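Task card 7
Instruction: Convert sequence to structure tokens.
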Amino acid sequence: MPYSKIASWSNMYNYLLEETTHSFDYIICPKGEVKAKNVIYEYVREITVKDKIKNKLVDDTSRFNNYMEALDRIINLNLETKFILHIIDNSGIVVPLDTHLKNANIRENFYIQYYYQGFAPLFPKKKADPFLYAIDELFFLTALSYNEYKNFYDDCTFRAKIVHNATNSKLFKRVSSEEKEKLREAQGIKQDEFVFMWCSQDRPKKGLHLILDAYKRVYKNHKGKIKLLIIGINRTIDQEGVEVVGRVPNKELAKYYQMSDVYLFPSLWKEGFGIVLAEALKCGTYCIASKQGGIPEVIGDGKYGVLIENPNMINEWVDEMEKAIHVIRNNKGINPYLDVISERIYDVDDWASKINKYINEVKLYL
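Output:
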């Protein structure tokens, strides 16, 4: 568990380990600042220059030797124990781990759970068997991703679970109309200004260039009456009606969803889940999103918001953005999808309970 790297899953596991009762006995990870409750840390040593040379000259799997050494230290203290190994989004370690345990003749004492944070199958068919057969149970972010695996590979012998990503309902939540107006005033947004929001990393596959193009066309019809907030980038965008907020800490992000009328999620790749989309839904924002990867499942196949069938086609974004302005204004500023969206949707406490349940189920029969 590389705590030094920030991702949606690391936020979730930090919450599980620090704020709740969890089912973990050991954590193997690089040394970091995070301290979980009621768990023993086994830190991996730092990779040396000698290790890196060996990785290049011998085999690439040796880059995980520091993890195997840490695991062996735990095993040697618990020789008669059976273990559940819960691996999060590190596909490269799976086969070396399986091989390591088999070489030690102890593979039958281990149950490997792998939590995949992507969408599409990880490996080509001809290279997938060592990975697929090394896993006892695979957690998918969406049923759509599970079906991709099931339909792509000839052999899927692992057990499977669907475990959606989640976020904090105490932070990402709806606010009253009065609170929304206060947030907008603090941001310098005019009272009747209609606000679109985009938030992501500044990479082409996140679709900002496409949204800026679509917004330019919409703005011509609503000049001075609409605004686009851009969050997550540091560069300047010189376009009328566009405000670059910059990078925002996660704990500050909720207020931007709450002050916005529409959240735009123009992903141009196969998203595993899209935690920002879940955050926007929880804050009551009207969402327009690409029909890509696991996104349709996150947005309830169109039950919770709008899906763009052809996300590379600018006109579809223009049409839906114009429609959103009309629908929300006619609905007195209220998102019409709110009635079917639970405020506990994608809740991190529910997610934590599910992870504990799926670990403890295995403990009963291992």
